[in-house]
Amino acid sequence: MEEHYNKLENIFSKSSLNKVLNAEIKINQGFSELIFTTNNSMHNEIKEIHNAYISMALESAAFFAANSLIEDVLVFAKSFEINYLKTTQGKKLKSSAKFVEKSMGNYFILVELTENKNLIARGKGVFRRSKTLLENINNYN
Predict the structure, then answer these.
(1) Backbone angles phi, psi at 116, to 5 degrees
(2) Class of 2-136 per CATH?
(3) Tens of pLDDT, residues 41-77
(4) C-alpha dihedral over 9, 11, 15, 18, to 10 degrees?
(5) How far separated are the first and last CA of the chain, in Å rounded?
(6) What SS3 class is residue 85?
(7) Phi, psi dihedrals of residue 128, rounded to the nearest 5°
């Protein structure tokens, strides 16, 4: 499985999304952690981090936590819900996702975004297997 996690990390690190976040990701079975440093272009007019970047970090971490459990195909998000709990001007943010349960083909993932252990946002995702083979994904092999 370690090889699978490394390949998933490679997909993320070379993704167009990561050109925006410039994040580091660590993936293990049913878990992923994404850490990124914000920059001025990520702030809105009142100097807070725009929710778009928070959403990207939460959904990406949840996606890879779910895909860590599946070695043959990509997953896709069936649904994803975010609760924004507070705003932040933080520089270094961490998105941590963990697998909670599998039911009727659905993988349930909980994810939190923190800044220095302060909870900024929380998400809940439901993921399913797609028909897209991992072996056909750029940067997986």
Answers:
(1) 50, 50
(2) alpha beta
(3) 888 888 889 999 999 999 999 999 999 999 999 999 9
(4) -10
(5) 14
(6) coil
(7) -135, 160
Amino acid at site 65 = A
Q: Are 116 and 90 in contact (CB under 8 A)?
A: yes
Phi, psi of 51 (to 5 degrees): -60, -25
Span 65-118, pLDDT tens digits = 999 999 999 999 999 999 999 988 889 999 999 999 999 999 999 999 999 989
Tokens 């220095």 belong to residue: 116
On the CB side of 129, how many CA atoms lie within 13 Å of its CA?
Answer: 12
| Contact of 74 with 128, CB cutoff 8 Å | no
